[in-house]
Structures are given as structure tokens and as C-alpha cells.
Design brief:
Region (SAW): 347-427
InterPro entries: TF_GRAS
Motif (VHIID): 171-175
Number of helices: 14
Low-confidence stretches: 401-408, 433-453
CATH class of the largest domain: Alpha Beta
Structural class: alpha/beta
Order of helices and strands: HHHHHHHEHEHEEHEHHHHEEEEE
CATH architecture of the largest domain: 3-Layer(aba) Sandwich
Helix content: 40-55%
Family: Belongs to the GRAS family.
Radius of gyration: 25 Å
Number of domains: 2
Largest sheet: 7 strands, mixed
Distance between the termini: 73 Å
Mean pLDDT: 81
Protein name: DELLA protein GAI1
Number of strands: 10
């Protein structure tokens, strides 16, 4: 009797093992079919023409169906939707086709285990050189990044000048993500132009970066630029954000201190804000994309997916006005910069400690409220910041038509929050980038907002 039970258990165990193996095999075959459809899409030579009133909406529905199925671990439905999607997509087609292609890739990446040999069939991550090239192309082609940097720099200059009677002409900027350092040449030049020969200004930038190599390149780039600027003493200190904490920042005595955070709202945990307050900065500058959520945190993958889709659809659409059809620069931007951001935005495998995150997504009002709970409050923007933003859009007016007070075609800028905020938007897409500057004076915390898309 015992032998019969043992045989039954063995047969049951083998049956379960065979079922699991067959399931994995079936899934691999399904993924291989999707990858084949994707490969045909990548090698299409003639873009598919879409009727935006029908096919565009159809693509969105298929994307949401696939994303929802992936969120519910409904593998079959997710794969079936992707099989219907890829034949209708093109990396050189209309904006909706292009953005849907990258979101389809992001969904597909969530369906494949990173250890699977099939995972390597997806597009490899761009090399550092490809990332830099894509970032540079976007910076030059669109007002998106320059708007964020220039308006933030004007806020820094305003704070520096307000404290010039006691800061001795010394400014220390702490940048949470210095990246390639593109934000800082304009600030270096502005300070050099304002300084006098007998009283040079001093600028130190402490920049946190992803790697030692990138930090060294950024230091060389900024130091080389500063050598051509008279009446300015410049220092750069790079810190690897994976290794260093935000301590031991070696602040200059009596200098105006500014903390700069561009597209790094997720870093502002309660503990980080406490550290920032201990530095007693004159400004905390935040530049961020505005979302639609009202909660301080959200674990809904589908809501994050829908919000990201709306935002990046506006980005892809705006690039059509900034760059000509068939532009290699546009493909470079979308493949090696925006595509990577899309995959990160909808990564279901990414583990995050959301308990400490102050706010990750939301509207301007949402993170304004969150910052106020931490002791910060807004102050009025200077008229120079608004003028700087409008001037930049006039310079970039070759990209598209623009209106200054919202609505209409192309890019638009608008002041908000009773003069404490300014935003750059595209059409009425709702996707925006927010920046918030927090100022501390006389022991009280104050601040102002700058916004960009």
C-alpha cells in the first residue's frame, strides 16, 4: 500500500514538473512570436499610414489592454495584444505609432525574465556615447531641457544677488544629478559677466553622478568652459550617488547655498529633506514633470502606465515640430533617450522603497502641499525668470507656433499659483514639468515654483 502511495506521489510530482516545463515552453514560443513581429516592425521600410480618428485610438486601446493584462499576470492576453500591435507600429511613422512602439517594448520587457535568453533579443541599452549623443540632440532641438535649466539658473542668480551684501560673492550649488553638466555653462557665463575685475565671484558646484567616468567628463567640460570666463573662480566636486551620501559637502563659509534637483523628485525622501534643511540653503530648486495623481504615492502600475503614455505622447508629438520628417536626430532621441525613460517609467520589476518617498507623482498642488508639510513654502518668482522663459521660446520659435497664455497650437507657457509658478506645455496635453524652488531666510522656509514640460 505504501508503495502504491509513493508511486502515485512520484507520478503526481512528474506530472506537475511536466506541466510547469510545458507552460514555460509555451510562453517562450509565444514570446518568440512577439519578437518576430517586433523584428518585422523594426525592418519596415515604408511607414504605415494611420487614420488618427480610428487607428490611433485603436493602438491606445491595445496598449492599455496589454498593460492591464501584464499587471494582472494574464500572460496570454498581454502577448495576444502585442501580436496585434507590432504590425501597426513604426519607428519612423506618426508620433502615436512611434510612442506605442516603445511602450510595447516596455510591456514586452516586463513579460520576459531578465535571465531568459530571449531578453537579450530586445534592444540593448544604449552605450554612454549613444546616451550622450541623444541627450545633446534633444537639448539643441527642443526647448524642453533648456527651459528647465535657464529658468532654474535665473532663480539661482536672483538668490545670489539678494545675498551679495553678505555672501562675499560666493555661491555653492549642490546638484542631485549633474548628468553632463549642461545646465551650468549659462550660470558660469552670467556670473562672470556680473563680476568685477577687482572683486571676482566664486562658484563651486558639487555634482552627484551615475559613474566616476561621467563625473570626470563633466568636470573637464565645465572646467574647460570656465577658463574662458574672466573674474570667476570655479570649482567642481563630483560625487558618485551610488557610493557617497549627501554628507561631507564641504560648504564654503558665508556662501549662498543652493540645492538643485532636476527630474529627481523621487530622491526627496523625508530624511533627504531633513538633511537639506540642515544645510540651511537659500534655495531648493525642483524641476519635475507634472502628473495627474493626487496621492503622494501610488502602487498602481496601470495608472502609472496611462500617465506616462499621455506625457510621452506629447513629447513625441512635439518633436515632429522641432525636427523634420525622417530626422536621424529624432530617431536617436527617441531610441536612446526617451525610449530608455519609457522603459524605466513602466518597469514592473523595479523595486522601490516607497515608504520613505515623500512624493513621486502628482500635480503641482500635490507636491506643493507635500513640501509645505515638510516646512517649505512658496515665494514669488522674479519678473526676470518669466522674461527669460519667454525669450527662450522666442529663440526656439522655429520649432513651432506658440502662445504665451495657454491654449492654441505648439508650445505654450503660463504663470500659475499666483505668480509662484511658470509652466511650459505642449498643446492641451496636460503633461508638464514642474520646478519648485524653496528659499530659506531668517530661520523660516520659503520658496517658489518654476515649471516646464
Amino acid at each position: 500500500m505504501k508503495g502504491e502511495v509513493a508511486d502515485d506521489l512520484l507520478n503526481l510530482s512528474l506530472s506537475i514538473g511536466q506541466t510547469k516545463k510545458r507552460k514555460r515552453t509555451d510562453q517562450n514560443l509565444a514570446i518568440a512570436a512577439v519578437l518576430h513581429a517586433r523584428n518585422r516592425m523594426l525592418h519596415q521600410t515604408t511607414p504605415i499610414l494611420l487614420d488618427h480618428n480610428i487607428d490611433g485610438l485603436h493602438l491606445i486601446r491595445l496598449l492599455l489592454l496589454s498593460a492591464s493584462a501584464a499587471d494582472l499576470h494574464d500572460f496570454s492576453t498581454a502577448v495576444e495584444s502585442l501580436l496585434h500591435l507590432y504590425p501597426q507600429l513604426s519607428l519612423s511613422g506618426d508620433p502615436i505609432q512611434r510612442v506605442a512602439a516603445y511602450f510595447s517594448d516596455a510591456i514586452l520587457a516586463n513579460l520576459i525574465a531578465p535571465s531568459s535568453p530571449l531578453y537579450s533579443s530586445l534592444s540593448p541599452s544604449p552605450t554612454p556615447h549613444e546616451e550622450f549623443s541623444a541627450f545633446t540632440s534633444l537639448y539643441l532641438a527642443s526647448p524642453y531641457l533648456q527651459f528647465a535649466h535657464f529658468t532654474a539658473n535665473q532663480a539661482i542668480i536672483d538668490a545670489f544677488e539678494a545675498e551679495e551684501h553678505w555672501n562675499g560673492g560666493s555661491l555653492h550649488v549642490i546638484d542631485f544629478d549633474v548628468s553632463y553638466g549642461f545646465q551650468w555653462p549659462s550660470l558660469i557665463q552670467s556670473l562672470a559677466d556680473k563680476a568685477k575685475k577687482d572683486k571676482p565671484f566664486k562658484l563651486r558646484i558639487t555634482g552627484f553622478g551615475r559613474s566616476e567616468a561621467e563625473l570626470k567628463e563633466t568636470e573637464a567640460r565645465l572646467s574647460g568652459f570656465s577658463k574662458g570666463c574672466r573674474n570667476l573662480y570655479f570649482e567642481f566636486e563630483g560625487k558618485n550617488m551610488e557610493i557617497n551620501s549627501f554628507k561631507d559637502l564641504n560648504l564654503w563659509e558665508n556662501s549662498t547655498v543652493v540645492v538643485n534637483s532636476v527630474f529627481n523628485l523621487h530622491m526627496l525622501k523625508s530624511s533627504t529633506l531633513q538633511l537639506i534643511q540642515s544645510l540651511n540653503p537659500s534655495l531648493l530648486i525642483l524641476v519635475e514633470k507634472e502628473g495627474r495623481r493626487t496621492e503622494t504615492t501610488s502602487k498602481s502600475f496601470l495608472s502609472r502606465f496611462m500617465e506616462s503614455l499621455q506625457y510621452f505622447a506629447a513629447m513625441f508629438d512635439s518633436l515632429d515640430d522641432c525636427l523634420p520628417a525622417g530626422s536621424k536626430e529624432r530617431l536617436r532621441i527617441e531610441k536612446n533617450y526617451l525610449g530608455r525613460e519609457i522603459r524605466n517609467a513602466v518597469d514592473m520589476k523595479q523595486e522601490e522603497d516607497e515608504k520613505e518617498v515623500l512624493i513621486k507623482y502628482g500635480t503641482l498642488a500635490t507636491w506643493k502641499e507635500a513640501m509645505e508639510r515638510s516646512g517649505f513654502e512658496g515665494v514669488m518668482m522674479s519678473s526676470r525668470s518669466v522674461s527669460q522663459a519667454k525669450l527662450l521660446l522666442k529663440i526656439k520659435s522655429h520649432c513651432s507656433t506658440m502662445e504665451e497664455h495657454g491654449g492654441g497650437a505648439g508650445f505654450r507657457i503660463s504663470e500659475r499659483d499666483d505668480g509662484r509658478a511658470i509652466s511650459l506645455g505642449w498643446h492641451d496635453s496636460g503633461g508638464s514639468t514642474r520646478s519648485k524652488t524653496m528659499q530659506r531666510a531668517k530661520g523660516n522656509l520659503h520658496g517658489f515654483d518654476v515649471q516646464a514640460i
